[in-house]
Structure prediction request, 363 residues.
Amino acid sequence: MSAGPSAAAGTPAGALRHVLSHLVTPLLMCIGMGLAYLGAFHAPQPHDLRVDVVGSGPSAQVLAQTLQDKGDGALSVRTVADRTTAAEHLRTQDSYGAYIPGNAPELLVASASSDTSATAVEKVFTQVAAGQGAPLKVTDTAPTADGDPTGQGIFFLLVAVSIGSYASVAVIGGAGAVLRLRVRAALALGASLVVSAIGAVFAGPLFGLVDHGLAGLWAMAWLYSAGILLIGVGLHTFLKRWTTLGVMVLFVMLNFTSSGGIFRPELQPGFFGALHSFWNGAGFVEGVRSHVYFGGHALGGNLLVLALWFVAGVALTGLAGLAEARRRSAAALPAVPPAPASAGPAGASAAEEEEEMEEAVGV
Prediction:
């Protein structure tokens, strides 16, 4: 029985219900973005932020213990024997500041690791030096490139590459829905090459975010982008119109906030800090930092993260291919005419009937 003219898809009431049902997606995006960004960024506070006090005597030990106690969990303070050891800890990102007490106190930081972490450490030790009645000298052992004075350019590069990638997912999944999956997967890989090349142009000749290591940055951008595109293309088979929301949750809401591009895990709530250890945006940001500024230290682990997300994309695309093949087979079977009661037209053999059946189902 018909539900009446008002329920017809072409009527104003039907069109209104259609629009309202689709408005669910942007409203969920609004809620998700607010929870993710405000939850991650609205009140950064250090916790277990590793710093060193240089010195082996009683005064250094007392200073370190005092900072540890007064910090109430904000700092994780240890003493190291000399400046060389402290500088090595900064190079390996095993600490984010090293204070050298004395008549002319000095603070070593590595702003390329995280400018916001370096700022937090500088704030603490500026007060320490002021309590000793001496100005603080700050030495940056790993400054960022001239084109990235805030050290956040790599994060905004991540944003650009991510948007190019997941927007391409929407186009390939929508406009390319009639194409076979292998064609859509090839388009995804091609789009990732273009997106990563654009990212390399931004990072190098256009804005100078890095002053060397551009080829390695491009390779990581391609691996990152290809992972997003393959995952998105695979998800589209299962999620359909909800793919955009799913991709945004994975590669915007949880990805940007856990990447460490603005605040490292030591300045964020624990949830985002935990994601930082294995999410693909963190793999890209930390991988580029390691490659460009820290001599490749821990680069292998970050490349592994990116590679695993790429493999997940390949696997998901493969599962989508199997699902689509089953759907095609299921859709073709009802189109097969029922077998006649007789043996078929005069003179037709069983082999000919079988061949016609195979042609009907597209075998």
